[in-house]
Each structure stands twice: as structure tokens, then as C-alpha cells.
Amino acid sequence: QMGLEKGQFEEIMASGRHHFITPKPKEISRADHEGRSSLTSGNPKERFQLMSLPHLGYTDVDRISLKKHFLRRMFRLKPHVRDAACNRVASHGLENDYIALSVRRGDKETETSILHTVRPYIKAAEHAVKSHFGGVRPAFFVATDDCAVMAEFRKSRPKWNFVSECDNASEENGFVFKEMKFWNDEQTDAHFGKFIAEMIAMATAKYWIGVASTNVSYWIYFMRSLDAEDDTFFWVDPPRIPGLPW
User: Fold this and answer.
1) Does the pLDDT of residue 205 top 70, yes or no?
2) Is residue 185 a contact partner of residue 1, using CB atoms and an 8 Å limit?
3) Omega before 245 cis (within 30°)?
4) pTM to 2 decimals?
5) Deepest of 11, 71, 171, 223, by most Cβ within 10 A of its Cβ?
6) What SS3 state is found at 30?
């Protein structure tokens, strides 16, 4: 069902042209990951298994780091795009360590259940402040396709410093993929300028809080530093099947 709208998936199922395998609960490896990302496996020996690709110059590199290396080889922003995005991030005054909050709404509501409140983010952020910031509250960068969440965050915690690309843009109804074909060049550039700045801000945050229902989260995980630990990456909606689709 990943990547399909609910109606599309149901139509495929009803056609009878495809064979689907549904694993039984006992056939799925489940574990209590306490909200942390469960990438490849909850078993450290499997998760950090050393792998080698001698012809590419990689010898005994753990599988998570290897994926991060490959992302850096395949995904490279053009200099003018990168510089523009970095300048946008810098304009938010994020000189010190900060927490990134990723909120996805829009057309995700047609594919899966979404969080209609910011309360889980606030709860996770309060925990992160204690565990990773010595109780000193940092700035919070909010990356979202639904700019209405900014008012929700600020109303919930008026004294917190929330910054966002939404302060210079407006995507109040959430990102809807089908609407992209109606955008003009200016709208397209505005959307991706905002999105790339958000990606960089999320990847460079000391602590990330977001949802598993968007592939952006997975992309950001591998954009983060090679030294980034998993206890700095927190799901507010743990994956339905721990360990997948990593």
C-alpha cells in the first residue's frame, strides 16, 4: 500500500490480477523500539553488520553508514540551489544546536492516519530537552507542508522559540501531489526552495522528531551526519511494522 492512495490500492486488490501475501503476526519480527527508528533490524549485530564493496573503495563499513555514503554519492544539490537553501536556514538564527520537528499532513490523510494534534511533538520535545540539551530549551525548527501547524505550536507553548520556512511562505492546506500539475514555474520553485531548505535544516538538527508515514523521514535519516546516533531520531508515530521499510 506504500505510495498508493487508499482508493487506488483497493481497486488493485479488487481486480484479482495480483497475488498478495499477508504475513501472520508471528512471521513479522516485532520489538519495542521505544519510538526510536528501527532501521534494518533491532538486532545490533544485523543492524551494524559490516559490508564491503572493494571496487568502490568501501571495506568493512556498517550497513547504515554505507547507505549514508551512497546517498551522498547520488544526491548532490547544485551549488546555487544549495547555497540559497543554506542562506534560508541561516536566516532563522540557528547558530546553536536545535530540535527539528517534521509535520506531514495534506494528501497523507488519504493514504494513512495522520496526527491531527501537535501534542505528541510537544511531549517528545520536552523529553529531548531533558535527555539531550541538559534541560536548556533550544530553538525548534518546524518543517511542514501545512503551515497552519505553526499557530498550533505557538499556542501550545507560547514561550518556546519556533522558527519555520512557513513564516515566509504559505502552504496552509498541506501538500497535495495531484495539484502539482497545476503549478506555474514560480509556484514550483517556491515549493522546492522551501522544501530543500527544510531538508537541510532537518538533517543538521541535533535532534529530529517526526512521523514514519512519509518517505521524507527516511531520506532525512540518511542525510544526517555519520555520527548521528539513533537516540536523536524519534518517531511520534512508530512504524506499523518495526524494521520496515528500511
Assistant:
1) yes
2) no
3) yes
4) 0.75
5) 171
6) coil
